[in-house]
């Protein structure tokens, strides 16, 4: 089968790899679409994503959709209980919890905080966890999420990043009737705009350096936008800020935009190691600064929202066939292309 494999920094290839051989308790998927994420780009450019360092060739991709190709004998009961079968359209929860741990009671249900998690397309473990940018992929039945009627396989590939955005907004608490600033209008930021809207926010403003990104944010439901590159000022005294850019230099301004006693959620990945940021206002304004990491099972909520009519198509700016995946990465990594979410057609 064909797969998108990163071998070393700057060395990304579409190449033939062996077909997966599913275990009896696994399900074989024929992959349909995959969304290129910032972590995929990081592995390609530097061989490092967060604290994970590439050591061996890695099939990338954790934002994926596909159809069930075959079901192992020991997986059949679980698949049928989920109302699925051969040919069913699905997306995948990319996480696998590793090891036996006793979590503190107050976070026992927050599986995204499990001490060790294997994740599609991640080099965090050795051997690495291969991703889903391939013709076929074997998964456990509990990782499957049925794609509802009316949701396309293209849109289903966005369920994973949308889950990240839904989780970030949920980390802010109840945002109904509140003002929300989303700083950074890349794919996660634009989806956070939609998530805040779904959660009942009164006014949502998106800020970014890119006019093209701001246009997408408006299409996803932003009431207003701030072109930081043009020198526009962030709004004042917002109740909640979702920081989705991951740029330390932006933090001081975002902190200053949040009202006293407000909430700032950090979902954009900050650089590894020490960073310089102006954070004094967190103390003097008693801002609650909260982290947001991946998601629990909001991927199911993401699919439900799409089935309910939420249109994620404004995010999809480019689609490339599998044999041109490297070109897709180049487009996704270059904001001057106007790209937001770049999909790879894996069929």
TrEMBL record:
Gene3D superfamilies: Medium-chain alcohol dehydrogenases, catalytic domain (3.90.180.10), NAD(P)-binding Rossmann-like Domain (3.40.50.720). Its cofactor is Zn(2+). Keywords: Metal-binding, Oxidoreductase, Zinc. Residues 187-306 form the Alcohol dehydrogenase-like C-terminal domain. Residues 24-148 form the Alcohol dehydrogenase-like N-terminal domain. Pfam families: ADH_N (PF08240), ADH_zinc_N (PF00107). The keyword Oxidoreductase applies. The keyword Transcription does not apply. Belongs to the zinc-containing alcohol dehydrogenase family. This is L-idonate 5-dehydrogenase. It comes from Brachybacterium epidermidis.
């Amino acid at each position: 089968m064909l797969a998108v494999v990163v071998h070393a920094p700057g060395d990304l290839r579409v190449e033939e790899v062996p077909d997966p051989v599913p275990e009896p308790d696994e399900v074989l998927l024929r992959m349909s679409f995959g969304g290129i994420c910032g972590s995929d780009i990081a592995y390609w450019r530097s061989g490092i994503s967060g604290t994970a360092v590439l050591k061996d060739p890695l099939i990338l991709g954790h934002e994926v959709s596909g159809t069930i190709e075959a079901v192992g004998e020991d997986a059949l009961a679980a698949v049928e209980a989920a109302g699925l079968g051969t040919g069913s359209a699905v997306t995948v929860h990319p996480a696998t919890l590793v090891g036996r741990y006793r979590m503190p009671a107050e976070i026992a249900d927050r599986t995204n905080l499990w001490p060790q998690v294997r994740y599609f397309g991640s080099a965090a473990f050795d051997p690495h966890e291969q991703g889903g940018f391939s013709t076929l992929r074997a998964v456990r039945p509990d990782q499957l999420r049925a794609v509802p009627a009316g949701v396309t396989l293209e849109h289903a590939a966005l369920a994973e990043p949308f889950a990240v955005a839904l989780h970030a907004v949920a980390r802010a608490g109840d945002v109904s009737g509140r003002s929300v600033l989303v700083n950074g209008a890349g794919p996660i930021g634009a989806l956070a705009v939609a998530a805040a809207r779904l959660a009942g926010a009164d006014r949502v403003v998106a800020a970014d350096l890119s006019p093209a990104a701001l246009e997408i944010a408006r299409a996803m439901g932003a009431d207003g936008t701030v072109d930081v590159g043009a020198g526009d000022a962030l709004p004042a005294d917002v109740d909640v800020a979702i920081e989705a850019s991951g740029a330390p230099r932006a933090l001081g301004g975002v902190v200053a935009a949040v009202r006293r006693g407000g909430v700032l959620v950090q979902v954009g990945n900050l650089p590894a190691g020490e960073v310089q940021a102006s954070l004094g206002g967190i103390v003097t304004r008693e801002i609650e600064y909260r982290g947001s990491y991946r998601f629990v099972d909001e991927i199911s909520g993401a699919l439900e929202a799409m089935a309910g009519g939420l249109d994620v198509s404004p995010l999809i700016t480019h689609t490339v066939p599998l044999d041109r995946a490297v070109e897709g990465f180049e487009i996704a990594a270059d904001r001057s292309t106007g790209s937001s979410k770049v999909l790879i057609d894996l069929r």
